[in-house]
Amino acid sequence: MSTIHWTENRTRQSARWHSENAAPLPRRIVVADDRMNADDAHRQACEGTALLWQGDFHNARQLLQAMGRRLDRKPAKSGLSPSENFHLHRRSSRHRARVLGKLLVLLEDDYRLTLRRAPDVRQACLEAYGPSGGPMAVSLRELLGVIGAHQWRLKGVAVPALGTRIHPHYGVFAPVRGEYVDLVARTSLPRAIRRNPASSTAFDLGTGTGVLAAVLAHRGVKRVVATDISPRALACARENAHRLALTGRIEVSGPGLFPEGRADLIVCNPPWLPARPAGSIEQGVYDPDSTMLRSFLDGLSAHLLPGGEGWLVLSDLAEHLGLRTRQQLLDAIQAARLRVVDKIDTKPRHPRSMDTTDALHTARRAETTSLWRLTP
């Protein structure tokens, strides 16, 4: 944690600085309130000045939205390749996040937000950040994400394959795209599991919320070991296993990728886009240099029992964006001395695939999600 300083009523003030996206410490901070208009806020934020909000909470949200509209005015460029369009979109998104991240709020010792008409954010912040270590400044944009994540955690995400809900934690990828869950729920299990389910073992690598581990246990796999590199994901998976009364069937292990031992089935749903995440929140979407994908492929044979299978759940969105070719994926499979037994495809059903205003709409419309069945 770093410390920020500002002057308020001629008094020097300080607080810890926190940013999930690892945004740098603001160099200059001014106090802002309901008298500030969106044009001034946008200009100062673009110049690098952070605005510590001391006015009405709902006015702050409206100001943030108005600043966002000013950033969205720039027309999209035409004639770009899919790869160029993606990288331009990423640069624009990072710039947007930097500018909007300059509107700050101060959380007190117990995560109280003392702004007028502010909601009670103490439980949401405790879930996201852990015990408070004193007053802390965060961007309003991040805090709104924390509040939204708390609501997701309370109500959960419906998973038809389980007939119940999975409850995601802050910073853990929520299973809102049901097609990849359905692929794991409907694909025929390896013969070894079908013949002797009472002694069957499966690994779920990069488990996130634990949804795929729960699906495998729901399908009759006796023992499922779920792993992840994220402490938040490990805590989330354990909580969901407890909610579903599956703690006797699901063992959560990590941080790491492969657990010790071998399994009849190893499932991996790595981040689908080989690009660098802007922060820990994006690690469920972006896999730099396809590191997790390659680690799964390279380690699969050594962790499979005789007759076992590896299931790679992967979208071809990266191919449509020009970030990875199909041949590069096949070459990686071959280099790992693996054979493709089958590939089961499905089309996405999420709303963004039909959103024509999305900068990546053309690629999303053509996207296919596949379950690759692999054996040594």
TrEMBL record:
* Entry superkingdom: Bacteria
Q: Name one Pfam family in it.
A: MTS
Q: Which residues cross the membrane?
A: none
Q: Where in this chain does the record put each Methyltransferase small domain?
A: 189-314
Gene3D superfamilies recorded for this chain? Vaccinia Virus protein VP39
Q: Name one GO biological process term.
A: methylation
Which key words tag this protein in UniProt?
Methyltransferase, Transferase
- Give the matching InterPro entries: DNA_methylase_N6_adenine_CS (IPR002052), N5-glutamine_MTase (IPR050320), SAM-dependent_MTases_sf (IPR029063), Small_mtfrase_dom (IPR007848)
Q: Is Iron-sulfur a UniProt keyword of this protein?
A: no
Q: Name one GO molecular function term.
A: methyltransferase activity
Q: Which PANTHER family match?
A: HEMK METHYLTRANSFERASE, MTRF1L RELEASE FACTOR GLUTAMINE METHYLTRANSFERASE
Q: What is this protein called?
A: Class I SAM-dependent methyltransferase
Q: What organism does the record attribute this protein to?
A: Streptomyces longisporus
